[in-house]
Amino acid sequence: MTQIIWIVAAVLVTFTVGYVGYSRYLSRFVELDDSRETPAHKYEDGQEYVPSKKPVLLGHHFSSIAGGAPIVGPITAGAIWGWAPALAWVAIGNPLMGAVHDFISLSGSLRHEGKSIGYIIGEYVGERGKDMLLWFAFLTIILVVAVFALVVGIVLNAFPSAATASFVYIALAVVFGVYLYQFDAPLVPGTIVFVAGVFAGVWIGIQYPFALFELAGDAAHPAGTFVLFDSTGSWVPGADALGGNTAGWVPVILVYAAVASALPVWTLLQPRDYLSSFLLYAGVGGALLAIIVGTIFGTSSEPLVIADSIEPFTGFLGVDAVSPFPLFPMLFVTIACGTISGFHSLVSSGTTAKQLNKESDARLIGYGGMLGEGLLAATALSTLAIAGFASDAAAGGIGGALPNFATGGGVILTSLGISAEYGAPFMALVLVSFLLTSTDTAARLGRYMMEEIVGTPGSGSETGFGGGIGSFARGRYTNPLVQIGLAYLLVVSGEWATLWTLFGGANQLLAALALLTGTVWLANWKESKQLISTGVPMAIMVVVTVLGLSWVAFKEQLYDQLIQGGASGLGAQVSASIRVLLAVVLIYLALSLVRLGYQNIGRVRQRGGAAAEPSDD
């Protein structure tokens, strides 16, 4: 039987080569220079532009990009097509594509005053391209917020201990922010005290789990769980599909994300992400260490080998537990964030670039941060292998994948002498930490997107949004209401499941468009700049994602659901029709932006490297 340590070894080798060699080359290629003033210093305002110490910003960045998708995606893909194809895409694609995508997005934003990729593309291809990308990104953000809020609800329902621990470390983060930024207190002593408090919060959560509602039927929370409302919450919107407790957590998470997105970054976002990063490092690093220790010394409660239910290669069309999915191109869209994610370009160019203290920090935070997400994907794949719930993960999507991460992770941690009784809730809390940080960061990014779409009064950037609508869309506290309102409707309508594949497709298309933005920037910067490092990954992602969305739209929905009658009832038919329409719109937007970018590059190269004037076409 194959030991799971080979999964870890494969990614460690390719990631080390990528960081030591390729990231150093890219740093020189984009000419990172610490003598150049970063946007954080140039526009420091104590709100959005805040120069940050490298370990603090790395914690924020890593926590923000590492959401639930790099856990759900590799587990689901490994269960459908086998662990070998999933491992290969993570180990090879991450350092050559995903880490390049994140690094170039961050570096490009640094040279454009910390502005988003939408602003950058608009500088070179005109307002039309900028508006298309901003709307594309904003709609993707709404899907991100909806899906992540739902997943948090699922995890808090399954592991009430994670709910209590989450409240503890959010409260600690607020205090830590005051300690660090208002009292200008030393970082290291504060880190020791407050990180200890976060881990104490894990113990408190295990001792005093918390839930909103009782579980229906024969299900029950762990003994000792404090339940706020003495009912099953059947009246909560979405309770029929999700269960009252899960549905009750969703609006709580959305309101939290809205409030966190409006507060100054030093108040909650930065200190919370920094503190939680130690929890995340402990979860991912601890699991990887446990795999090594357990394999060498045999200290785990179960052999750390790949379960018989997980084949190296199941087949091109996957397993019978799900509808036949062709490995190409659906593997790449399914794994998504574990290898490359467009959402990361929004984090890099939306929040991280506004807080970078010096340019050389971009190498570790941008390129290295994405490698950290790849390690999370490898950890998730390992938990699937050890847990062996392949058919459940394949057929159940989110509901099947998430239990694998906590359960399998708990078994792995027994190698370090941690009982599975404590290990599984700890890994659940790690997952919640990833999700919470990504959710409120996504809401903040959505606010930035909308502000750029409607423009700023008196700046000459105003659009057709004026009067009350423009003021509402620009408002720090009103803008997030639009996002969480639409996200909540998506979740409670029961249509979130039908939109999950589109979320993955939109996210991957956004990655392709971010790479396109980086390629256009490099082409306009200097004639001698090679465009292979960004252009080739961009072309691959465009082809893969367009084919994947075409399969979803025309095979799964148009043919199977509408023509063959798989969608029974008016509601199902409308849902299938919407999926077809959304996929076609996403494909059109992506190809249109690629055309605009290609035209710009052609004009620049024909003029011998002189930057072309932005086009309004």
Order of helices and strands: HHHHHHHHHEEHHHHHHHHHHHHHH
- Could you name the CATH topology? Amino acid/polyamine transporter I
Question: What's the CATH class, please?
Answer: Mainly Alpha
Instruction: State the fourth-level CATH superfamily.
Output: Amino acid/polyamine transporter I
Number of helices: 23
Strand elements, count? 2
Strand order of the largest sheet: 1-2
Structural class: mainly alpha
Kindly estimate the percentage of residues that lie in beta strands according to DSSP.
under 5%
Poorly predicted segments: 457-465, 611-617
What gross morphology would you assign? Answer: globular
Radius of gyration: 23 Å
CATH architecture classification name:
Up-down Bundle
> What multimeric state do the chains show?
single chain
Structure overview:
The chain has 23 helices and two strands. The protein has 617 residues and is mainly α. The protein starts with a helix and ends in an 11-residue tail after the last helix. The protein is globular. The relative contact order is 0.17. It has a single domain, classed as Up-down Bundle (Amino acid/polyamine transporter I). Strands 1-2 form a two-stranded parallel sheet. It is a multi-pass membrane protein. Keywords: Cell membrane, Membrane, Transmembrane, Transmembrane helix. This is Carbon starvation protein A. It is found in: Cell membrane.
